Amino acid sequence: MTKNIAILGASGYTGAELIRLISEHPGMKIKALGGNSKAGQRLSQVFPHLRHLDLPDLVKMDQIDFSAIDLCFCALPHKTSQEVISKLPETLKIVDLSADFRLRDPADYETWYGNPHTALKQQKEAVYGLTEFYRNEITTARLVAGTGCNAATGQFALRPLIAQGIIDLDDIILDLKCAVSGAGRALKENLLHAELSEGYHAYAIGGTHRHLGEFDQEFSALAGRAVKVQFTPHLIPANRGILATCYVKGDAQAVHNALEKDYEHEVFLEVLPFGETPSTRHVRGSNFCHIGVSADRIEGRTIVTAALDNLTKGSSGQALQNANLMLGLPETQGLMMAPLFP
Amino acid sequence: MTKNIAILGASGYTGAELIRLISEHPGMKIKALGGNSKAGQRLSQVFPHLRHLDLPDLVKMDQIDFSAIDLCFCALPHKTSQEVISKLPETLKIVDLSADFRLRDPADYETWYGNPHTALKQQKEAVYGLTEFYRNEITTARLVAGTGCNAATGQFALRPLIAQGIIDLDDIILDLKCAVSGAGRALKENLLHAELSEGYHAYAIGGTHRHLGEFDQEFSALAGRAVKVQFTPHLIPANRGILATCYVKGDAQAVHNALEKDYEHEVFLEVLPFGETPSTRHVRGSNFCHIGVSADRIEGRTIVTAALDNLTKGSSGQALQNANLMLGLPETQGLMMAPLFP
Amino acid sequence: MTKNIAILGASGYTGAELIRLISEHPGMKIKALGGNSKAGQRLSQVFPHLRHLDLPDLVKMDQIDFSAIDLCFCALPHKTSQEVISKLPETLKIVDLSADFRLRDPADYETWYGNPHTALKQQKEAVYGLTEFYRNEITTARLVAGTGCNAATGQFALRPLIAQGIIDLDDIILDLKCAVSGAGRALKENLLHAELSEGYHAYAIGGTHRHLGEFDQEFSALAGRAVKVQFTPHLIPANRGILATCYVKGDAQAVHNALEKDYEHEVFLEVLPFGETPSTRHVRGSNFCHIGVSADRIEGRTIVTAALDNLTKGSSGQALQNANLMLGLPETQGLMMAPLFP
Amino acid sequence: MTKNIAILGASGYTGAELIRLISEHPGMKIKALGGNSKAGQRLSQVFPHLRHLDLPDLVKMDQIDFSAIDLCFCALPHKTSQEVISKLPETLKIVDLSADFRLRDPADYETWYGNPHTALKQQKEAVYGLTEFYRNEITTARLVAGTGCNAATGQFALRPLIAQGIIDLDDIILDLKCAVSGAGRALKENLLHAELSEGYHAYAIGGTHRHLGEFDQEFSALAGRAVKVQFTPHLIPANRGILATCYVKGDAQAVHNALEKDYEHEVFLEVLPFGETPSTRHVRGSNFCHIGVSADRIEGRTIVTAALDNLTKGSSGQALQNANLMLGLPETQGLMMAPLFP
């Protein structure tokens, strides 16, 4: 039976990406689109590329009858999300794409996001949405917290290595190259085409990026002790994509073996042959993550690279993958589209 | 029953696009991939973005058992295509994406392409593949000739207006803006990123572009007399997309009415509300063509704009749409994916 | 003797371009930078690419001692510009880059810009700043009005043809392809990199673009009777450049001869050999305008293409060229830098 | 007195960049342009953006009268360069932009470039062209070897730190982001716009990039013992720019102090305020290198970032800076142009 879906925050990029994906999903139908600031508009006004779809108009959240909804995606800004979700029916299945429920410890949340958490009850029940590693918990969860897109990329590259202790836990560097859609549709000067194109730079340098909260939480839990990584993101003049270049200390072949073995049955995580490197252009618009392992010329130094599409596997594709599990649908349903190249 | 598909010329962009589309088509399966110069390679070496697919390796054409094939796509360069197709089994259904069978008159072919046609028998039976206008002929055809991508765009904008005589037939200007993938994967200096990006220019100016052969053939047939248009293409620093800006003389409202009426039941041809203009970014990766009509401030002057993705609706999507008809499948099957934006 | 220069509106793109150009001008020195909203900031905070220059900090306009200034560039938004300029000393030489003083008839100004002109005295004395055609008037002017960047491009392509009556004055079409910096540094959703890159579209279609006011004024004056052109701009995913494709009726060779003859001694206006077409990439960052003429296959139809950099020859370079004349300096001083390619 | 200049290899990007720069140099004049494969062509055919310049046509090398030349730039491919230079007059001043004379030890050259060096005599006399660090030697040199563009960027970031021993010499990681013009004008599939734009990837991963030869040579000489760094370049969809993100172990403030002090009087090396990060867009087309230092959240970890334009400060600008010294001209002459932004 077709599942009825609501999307809150449908006028942002992750909202649009959810609609794109669900429009071809055989088991879901979009019944409500929430977008407070643009309520009353047709979605084709906000996203003309979706004009061929027969979709409900954007409405205010309180106009939605959630009793008819099987699962609700929240693609709202952080802080807004916790306010909204705390008011939604307690039985409603929710996949949240914001940062609000990613960190288990409310103190961590306040540290990284600067404001106290106001939906502690929901925070407690939320399951971290990195599908491949929390599959069982997600399947039975009511509320799943989508991961940060950078956090997902780094974890796909490193989790098995940290869990198995085959790399030096005190010397991990993640140099990330992020495309611009990860910054959302906000009007900021540095996101203008004339500012951004033809140039690139590091930002949130030195360990200030909020996704570090997720790395700390997850990597420490895996290792059973505190693990702190270095993480420097860079903004690249492209629309979609994250490339993580991870510098670790450990045997390259052992690293490759660990990733290959752990991801052997994972449809979306593809470990390339040893020595090959992935490219963001080869995962664009898809739910795949390509992972490469290379040995450095210096013995004992290994480079793990991982590429995914921040809007798909990094957020909305991941969210749909989780929703499939929560609704008892096949995990990969609606997610097997090939990347768009060129 | 699933239809068995072969693709010749699988290492070019239209070949890759066919594979992308067919990979999600519920009624087709790729059984053979021909690519002479890269025979013996795995497709994932040639197109790493397709590495998740379970595909046959590239082979030489004569290694393919065509008796097991229901339909063959030929995505070869023109001239090569006619040589190959003349040697294929006479009963094999074929959709050709080259220029070789688009022009009905062999003399026209020689005029525009510079060499005599060497597969006259096949040329005679070929049906022009502009689906929305040759649907019946295509359904029963054995050999369908895919149209030029520019030719398709211009015809979607203008055919109803010419057929109904509501514009001046002697004063039609098509100013086209073409993305770079239309030039294929050939190694040409002007297609390098460092040359092409951040700049744009007109090419084949003054009526020398080969797609004019198609415009002349089709528009003249529609009008019942010779119609010659002006056509100037421009190369734009983007990967996918054609935008046609057509300057015609006629009443704008009548033009809009004619297009709306003729395309009322066409799934892929969307006529925008009067005065709105389409954008290539809103059809990227999809089989849709968006069409806009605006009145100029000078009375009796009308501007028709049309946008499509040259690799999808302009070639491989069109080819698949035709193949669906030829194989008795639903015309839109495998073609309803939403555009990729941003 | 070095001339002292002030720039009002130094925090926008045309302001930055003026500083870039003047920084290498041997006869000018920047003494004051006005930027009300960013007053108090160092210019290197607003434009880090200019950090190597020894420049005054941004100040509010009323902090500037204009008695020490030889010439003031106003790079302010229209409407603001007329308010500011009407309060500046009456003897101060000014080059205005806004739209406020381009149209001679106050009624035309109100028609195209929607508000009544409030600096009628200054408007009356302003000289239209298309250097190559108003050289004498500019040399002795106190107030020069920089032209629209699109208006400049179209006029370079067409003025000699209209003045000499060698094209049909009632059937002129300008299809312009404009890069994004022409839209300025304003925060608009459609100017975001994620929205703009990889796509393109027509805007202000049908004769609503304000630069038509300039075309009407200038072309009609040249012809001695009303001339109305069709003008459709398109937004292209590149940072700098305007390409005008002009469709006219007239003999192509005569058109080429007229342009070659009229521009024979113009340093910045280069007419290409007959049949060649210019590219925006070959004028980027320079004050040159490349112009091409081609015959269409239809007899009597001619295509004139012109390419320039909207921020240089289209605005700030033109402004500096005019300032040179007004200050008695060599016209080309500080303007001979080669384009930046690739 | 004006110096007469020859450029060999004028049809590549570094050749074109030399011409762009020299065209505005008050003390140099281009007397000969060598380009074997394009001999006989006018430079405006090869580089239309330089058509405004009065330049000699391209000729074969043996057609050049070197007795009239004060200094010759060689912008040829490596291996070709050593063959050519060994045949040039022994008294001719030469700035070579190839890789042929960068490595002092012939065995190192063979290791990294795969072929034995065939101009050992010239190699012996060649001076390494990193101007700021070899100024005296360059001033009196006959033959100067331009550095690798990546090698220059990394050295500007790290030399003072290695020389002063304030970072751990055994744990230095350089993650470089390189724009595409660094790959030259060669026809390679992966450099096509349709392949490259909208995606990015690591290449020459694991310590195989040839510029490591320079890092090893220079850093080891500075330290007085073997120093081996990790170096991973990435190809970014932009035309100009290199951004080096260097991960080092040492005190961030000490690192910043060392760079500020050593570069205090260097016109082209700008150390940003502590904690700020440079962007390639802010040095485009200029000879400046911007350097930033940030502390990581992990104590004792420091990130040094450096940005320059690979065609200017990374090759042709550096070459001109060296030529100025060799010819007794002011070091910065012709090199003070501001970056082009946007």
Automatic annotation (TrEMBL), chains A, B, C, D:
Entry keyword Oxidoreductase: yes
Catalytic center residues: C149
UniProt xrefs under Pfam families: Semialdhyde_dh, Semialdhyde_dhC_1
Alphabetical keyword list: Amino-acid biosynthesis, Arginine biosynthesis, Cytoplasm, NADP, Oxidoreductase
Catalytic reaction(s) noted: N-acetyl-L-glutamate 5-semialdehyde + phosphate + NADP(+) = N-acetyl-L-glutamyl 5-phosphate + NADPH + H(+)
Protein family per UniProt: Belongs to the NAGSA dehydrogenase family. Type 1 subfamily.
GO biological process: L-arginine biosynthetic process
Superkingdom of the source species: Bacteria
EC number of this enzyme: 1.2.1.38
CDD domains xrefs: AGPR_1_C (cd23934), AGPR_1_N (cd17895)
Function: Catalyzes the NADPH-dependent reduction of N-acetyl-5-glutamyl phosphate to yield N-acetyl-L-glutamate 5-semialdehyde.
Protein name: N-acetyl-gamma-glutamyl-phosphate reductase
Entry-linked InterPro entries: AGPR, AGPR_dimerisation_dom, AGPR_type-1, NAD(P)-bd_dom_sf, Semialdehyde_DH_NAD-bd
Matching Gene3D superfamilies: Dihydrodipicolinate Reductase, domain 2 (3.30.360.10), NAD(P)-binding Rossmann-like Domain (3.40.50.720)
Coiled coil: none
GO cellular component: cytoplasm
